[in-house]
Design goal:
The structure is a single chain. By secondary structure, the protein is of the alpha+beta class. It has a seven-stranded mixed sheet, sandwiched between helices. A two-stranded antiparallel ribbon has the order 2-3. It has seven helices and nine strands. The radius of gyration is 18 Å and the shape is globular.
């Protein structure tokens, strides 16, 4: 049987998943959709259009994120009620604007949210948007400079890029777009901001996401089993639930050996 036909059959039979590592073999190359990754201020469908004011783009990305991330979140309800969607949209849009809002290319605030974050003198932050041929958002990922706690028994922290808010539209999953967004965020951190490492937080129970990051070279630094997260519940509420947060790090530009021996 010709190799191309075998690859086509394997692609058709591949199981789907809510969030899965991208297929990085020949199948991904053959079936990778035509999309582009832009900064939120450059996304014309979101109202940015290169003007530098990305407020409308962040609102559109926030609505996308609720559908792509919060619907069916690991540990939560399989679908969202109307009230849950509205509540999460308000919170997500506000969070995106708090983190990534820019006017004239500058971030609006140095106040950085999160239990593990402090206040950094470096205020740079960027939301990257993956758009299809119609200009619609099919994925996103954020990166910002935060004060990240070392959690090593000492009351210390460091200033470094933190990647977050990675989400892919359901119909575009398992096509390598998650990897593309991670690499784009890393490129901003390294090539534009001059950092040589990138951090992220992920819930331990989100096993597919953890495996994806491990595949891309991220290594666990510490875990916190006392963390909490928002969870849409089956009875229509959005409640706080317990979770374990994993902090992971990757050295940028160090190649294979840099990540094998530079994780501490």
């Amino acid at each position: 049987m010709p190799l191309l036909l075998v690859l086509l059959l394997l692609a058709l039979l591949a199981p789907s998943a809510a969030f899965a590592p991208p297929a990085l073999g020949l199948g991904a190359l053959l079936f990778k959709p035509r999309v582009g990754i832009v900064k939120s201020g450059e996304w014309t469908a979101g109202g940015g259009g290169g003007s530098g004011d990305n407020g409308e783009a962040l609102a559109e990305a926030g609505r996308f994120f609720v559908d792509a991330f919060w619907t069916g979140k690991v540990g939560g309800a399989s679908s969202l009620s109307s009230s849950q969607s509205q509540s999460l949209e308000r919170q997500q849009i506000a969070e995106f604007k708090k983190r990534y809002y820019q006017r004239g290319g500058a971030s609006s605030t140095g106040k950085l949210p999160g239990k593990y974050a402090g206040r950094s003198s470096d205020k740079r932050a960027e939301l990257l948007v993956c758009v299809d041929g119609r200009g619609e958002c099919v994925g996103c990922a954020g990166v910002e400079v935060e004060r990240i706690k070392k959690m090593d028994g000492y009351d210390g922290s460091l200033s470094a890029p933190l990647m977050s808010n990675l989400a892919i539209s359901r119909k575009y999953r398992r096509k390598g777009l998650a990897e593309d967004l991670v690499r784009a965020a890393e490129a901003v951190a390294r090539k534009e901001w001059g950092y040589d490492e990138c951090y992220l937080y992920v819930e331990k129970r989100n096993v597919p996401a953890v495996k994806l990051y491990q595949k891309l070279g991220y290594r666990t630094i510490w875990e916190d089993d006392s963390a909490t997260t928002l969870l849409p519940t089956e009875d229509g509420r959005v409640a706080n639930g317990k979770t374990t947060i994993v902090c992971m790090k990757r050295r940028l530009g160090g190649g294979l050996f840099g990540n094998l021996f530079g994780a501490s």
